[in-house]
Design the sequence.
């Protein structure tokens, strides 16, 4: 792996992006890397657009990823993937949860959810992985674990031992949800 | 007719002559007499508020409602009022809004000696500084005109010597007192982040325009005489300088934010040695230096206490090397040092340069400060090059606030809003909020609106959460009762501080450390403040809610409605979700903006997302066809 990596996690308030980025940061820590994570929320907790930026590497200075400099974008929702595509560097990878959450203007019929959104993302992004994370998590018994499914997919494209990820899960997830999350992680890791 | 007035009386006279309709203050020496004198003009509504923040909010509300407004306080009061002030700088005004800060150099009757000129660049608002009573009166007009022309509050900064000393003032006839008609403009007056970002850019533009204005406004005057030394000064210090050095060249600054950079540079170039004479902080000095112009200021003058004619005279003479009994021990040494770094246009004619090498003198080369470029826009705008529909934050499904905003909108009320989850009532489809300035401002702002425009009183409510009410709404309610306001305050009590992630507050019965705590009783509190009409209502009962709001808004006395329902995120929800059967596609329920409801594009019928629906039942109350009901019923 190159010395630094920029990972952007985008989604909708309530989808668990923050927990996911904490797991990611923990992994970086366990690797002995420097890590900076920045999250912007506030009103976004109420179903708004949420973005978390995680930068890891030998030494990280700025906590912010510039447009066109994300190595990986993990999108928890399709429209958010579309919205943030410009952040990806040429040749970067995008992991998209194949889930649609309509924003209010769309719900009430004041705006339209873009048609064929995955196709238009595909036109902009070279390496696109679409994951039915919500379905997978639902099958495992809890749709809320979709975020950890996505972490599993992310782990599979990063050059970090699987055990490190599993240890991070143990450290970050409350005991009573651990087993579910371990299965969710495995489901994601093995999708590819 | 000329008469002798103190600066405070002159400001009050200015308020009378130049069309002020609303004045609010908390008393504080040396500002107190301004309002006491305004009270002598029955044409102007004036009041004491329980503190400076409330007074400021009353002023902001009155200005938004269209009245020319003045708010006065002593310097430390501005610390208390800073919250609404800084955001009023964003919203701007409708009628002119002037904030008078009366500073107290020398602490004749104050606990500290802060220099409130620093507030002007900090809050990004223009500032005027009069140097006698006539100017104090004239500057009320200038400030009001500027406020309306540039859409900004204006800081009129005086000091004890201006406030409390008398000088001649020419009295004039009052102009007509007009209040501009009220109209809703949420993008300008509701400072949610999306709207505030736009206003932030407006401020940059306004600053540019003010930067041009300050170059030409006649209160910034060069009084050219002997070019061997020049003095830049403002406020009462101007008077000391004029008396100490009748023949000196002066740049007299009446508008001290933004500063006239070109005029300063022009003046600096025209004199051999340049001094700044000002009380307290090196406010002008530091800024002039930042232009690349060397000046002599606090090296010779104290940065504390008041100045006087003799102080100015001895210190400047010492600096110029013109006196044998310098007040400073090392005066001559300092003079040489100062001269070595000063901007002398001509080394030959420069007295201070007499004994320093001519090459040490450099021609003044003012540096224009960098213009803000496109970059600043780039930083503010979230880069989103693709045309994705926006995803605004929304109130949660089952939020107890939703029905309140729906009802307010339905009743077409003017809504003075506040900071919390419920600020989301600004956005479509509810669009029920007119103003949002800072925590607590809903209530005091509504009082100001009512005082400015009594017609608004019978269609005006303020809306505030439980935590925000305890933060600083309670003083506003006190003010409404005390000053005979009649508008209705709705306390949205959802038993938690929801917006920030569900923290406890004095009304929830728990402390941060998990201990039980006494619970503030809102009904008893409102009654203790003197509100006679206090009603509690379930916000999920729309019919009753509407009836109560109508009745209380109509009542010609203050009333408090407490809507009680815990935040949807803190209750263990056991309600069955709704389903939609037999929808006629009228979309009436969609006006609630509940994210659990959506329109199926194919069938044009509403569907309920049972994973999100909490079964609160609000939407069912809107459906005329009884299509929304508990699943399975
Ligand atoms: S957190 Fe509570 S108060 Fe805030 S929008 Fe959601 S339900 Fe309403
Ligand atoms: S009952 Fe209606 S308004 Fe309430 S949460 Fe369900 S869909 Fe939304």
Sequence:
């Amino acid at each position: 792996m190159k010395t630094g990596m920029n990972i952007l996690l985008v989604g909708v308030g309530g989808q668990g992006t923050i927990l996911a980025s904490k797991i990611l940061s923990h992994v970086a820590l366990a690797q002995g890397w420097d890590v900076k994570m920045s999250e912007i929320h506030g009103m976004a907790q109420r179903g708004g657009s949420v973005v978390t930026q995680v930068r890891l590497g030998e030494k990280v200075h700025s906590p912010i990823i510039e447009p066109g400099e994300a190595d990986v974008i993990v999108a928890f929702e399709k429209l958010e993937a579309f919205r943030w595509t410009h952040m990806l560097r040429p040749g970067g990878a995008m992991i998209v949860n194949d889930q649609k959450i309509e924003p209010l203007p769309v719900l009430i019929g004041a705006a339209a959810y873009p048609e064929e959104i995955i196709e238009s993302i595909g036109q902009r992004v070279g390496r696109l992985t679409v994951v039915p994370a919500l379905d997978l998590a639902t099958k495992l018994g809890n749709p809320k674990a979709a975020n950890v499914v996505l972490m599993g997919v992310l782990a599979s494209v990063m050059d970090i031992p699987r055990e490190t990820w599993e240890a991070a899960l143990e450290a970050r997830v409350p005991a009573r949800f651990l087993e579910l999350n371990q299965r969710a992680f495995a489901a994601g890791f093995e999708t590819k | 007719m000329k008469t002798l007035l103190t600066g405070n009386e002159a400001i009050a006279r200015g308020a009378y002559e130049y069309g002020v309709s609303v004045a609010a203050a908390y008393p504080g020496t040396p500002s107190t007499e301004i309002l006491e004198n305004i009270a002598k003009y029955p044409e102007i509504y004036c009041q004491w508020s329980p503190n400076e923040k409330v007074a400021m909010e009353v002023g902001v509300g009155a200005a938004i409602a269209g009245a020319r407004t003045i708010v006065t306080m002593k310097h430390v009061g501005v610390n208390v009022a800073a919250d609404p002030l800084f955001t009023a700088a964003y919203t701007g005004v409708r009628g002119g809004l002037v904030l008078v800060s009366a500073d107290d150099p020398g602490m004749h009757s104050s606990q500290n000696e802060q220099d409130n000129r620093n507030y002007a660049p900090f809050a990004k608002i223009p500032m005027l500084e009069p140097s006698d009573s006539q100017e104090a009166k004239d500057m009320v007009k200038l400030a009001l005109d500027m406020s309306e022309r540039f859409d900004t509050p204006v800081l009129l900064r005086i000091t004890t010597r201006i406030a409390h000393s008398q000088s001649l003032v020419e009295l004039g006839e009052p102009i007509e007192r007009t209040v501009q008609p009220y109209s809703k403009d949420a993008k300008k007056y509701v400072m949610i982040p999306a709207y505030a970002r736009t206003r932030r850019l407006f401020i940059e533009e306004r600053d540019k325009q003010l930067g041009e204005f300050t170059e030409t406004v006649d209160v910034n005057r060069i009084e050219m005489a002997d070019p061997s030394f020049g003095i830049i000064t403002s406020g009462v210090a101007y008077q000391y300088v004029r008396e100490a050095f009748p023949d000196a060249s002066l740049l007299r600054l009446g508008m001290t934010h933004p500063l006239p950079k070109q005029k300063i540079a022009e003046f600096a170039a025209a004199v051999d040695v340049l001094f700044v004479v000002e009380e307290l902080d090196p406010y002008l000095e530091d800024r002039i230096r930042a232009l690349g112009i060397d000046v002599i200021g606090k090296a010779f003058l104290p940065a504390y206490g008041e100045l006087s004619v003799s102080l100015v005279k001895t210190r400047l003479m010492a600096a110029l090397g013109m006196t044998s009994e310098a007040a400073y021990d090392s005066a001559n040494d300092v003079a040489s040092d100062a001269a070595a770094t000063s901007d002398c246009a001509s080394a030959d004619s420069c007295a201070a340069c007499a004994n320093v090498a001519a090459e040490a003198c450099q021609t003044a080369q003012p540096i224009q400060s960098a213009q803000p470029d496109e970059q600043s826009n780039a930083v503010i705008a979230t880069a989103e090059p693709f045309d994705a529909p926006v995803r605004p934050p929304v109130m949660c499904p089952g939020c107890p606030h939703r029905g309140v905003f729906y009802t307010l909108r339905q009743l077409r009320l003017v809504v003075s809003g506040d900071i919390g989850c419920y600020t989301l009532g600004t956005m479509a489809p509810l669009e029920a909020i007119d103003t949002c300035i800072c925590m607590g401002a809903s209530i005091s702002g509504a009082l100001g609106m009512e005082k400015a425009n009594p017609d608004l009183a019978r269609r005006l409510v303020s809306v505030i959460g439980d935590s925000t009410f305890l933060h600083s709404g309670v003083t506003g309610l006190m003010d409404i009762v005390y000053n005979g306001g009649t508008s209705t305050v709705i306390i949205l009590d959802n038993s938690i501080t929801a917006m920030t992630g569900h923290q406890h507050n004095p009304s929830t019965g728990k402390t941060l450390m998990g201990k039980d705590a006494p619970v503030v009783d809102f009904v008893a509190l409102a009654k203790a403040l003197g509100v006679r009409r206090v009603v509690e209502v379930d916000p999920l009962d729309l019919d009753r809610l509407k009836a109560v709001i109508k009745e209380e808004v109509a009542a010609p006395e203050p009333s408090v409605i407490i809507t009680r329902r815990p935040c949807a995120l803190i209750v263990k929800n056991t309600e069955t979700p709704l389903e939609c059967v037999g929808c006629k596609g009228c979309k009436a329920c969609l006006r609630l903006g509940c994210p659990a409801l959506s329109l199926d594009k194919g069938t044009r019928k509403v569907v309920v997302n049972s994973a999100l629906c909490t079964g609160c039942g609000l939407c069912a109350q809107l459906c005329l066809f009884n299509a929304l009901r508990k699943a399975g019923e």
User: Anything to note?
Assistant: Chain A has one domain: 5-107+115-190.
